[in-house]
Design brief:
Blueprint lengths: L1 H12 L5 H5 L10 H19 L8 H12 L3 H19 L5 H20 L3 H26 L11
Helix pairs in contact: 3-5, 4-5, 4-6, 5-6, 6-7
Length: 159
């Protein structure tokens, strides 16, 4: 009995042990409980569904999810996985194209902006970062179109 306690204590003190091993199974995926994983899966499904239904122009729930996940989700792997999983899930239906890489990169950048926003706790930044995330999406995806398609000359004016 004392030996078993010693093993558990040693594992708890080990900074390299896996949380999955400590808690066991799916409940420890990204350090989340089963209910939290269900809520995350529901958010991903809802965001993916928002791309498939008719919606107003410039309505981007996945962009909002990316900014929120970066600012509020503690595990950086989960913060990146949430919007990118929603994109991949909806792209299975919508299809992938040559610009998809730039779209995925822009959402990953927005998660990074959200991580920065989570550290800067100021109302000013809370107002600036949504505009910065939308602008970065616009610039990166338009750059991707310019690079990927031959519709525009490869000059500064074409860009």
């Amino acid at each position: 009995m004392a030996n078993d306690h010693h093993i558990r204590q040693r594992d708890a003190d080990n900074p390299y042990h896996s949380p999955r091993e400590a808690n066991g199974g799916v409940n420890a995926l990204f350090g989340q409980s089963g209910w939290q994983l269900l809520a995350i899966a529901a958010l991903i499904a809802a965001a993916a569904w928002s791309r498939l239904i008719e919606h107003p122009w410039n309505f981007t729930p996945i962009g909002a999810m990316a900014l929120f996940a970066g600012a509020k989700v503690r595990d950086w792997r989960l913060a990146f996985a949430m919007p990118l999983a929603a994109m991949a899930l909806s792209d299975v239906v919508l299809g992938f194209n040559s610009i998809s890489l730039y779209v995925y990169l822009s959402f990953a950048l927005i998660v990074g902006l959200g991580m920065l926003l989570g550290r800067l706790r100021s109302p000013l930044w809370l107002a600036v970062f949504p505009f910065a995330s939308g602008t970065s999406f616009y610039l990166l995806t338009n750059f991707g179109c310019w690079v990927s398609f031959g519709m525009y000359p490869k000059t500064l004016a074409g860009l």
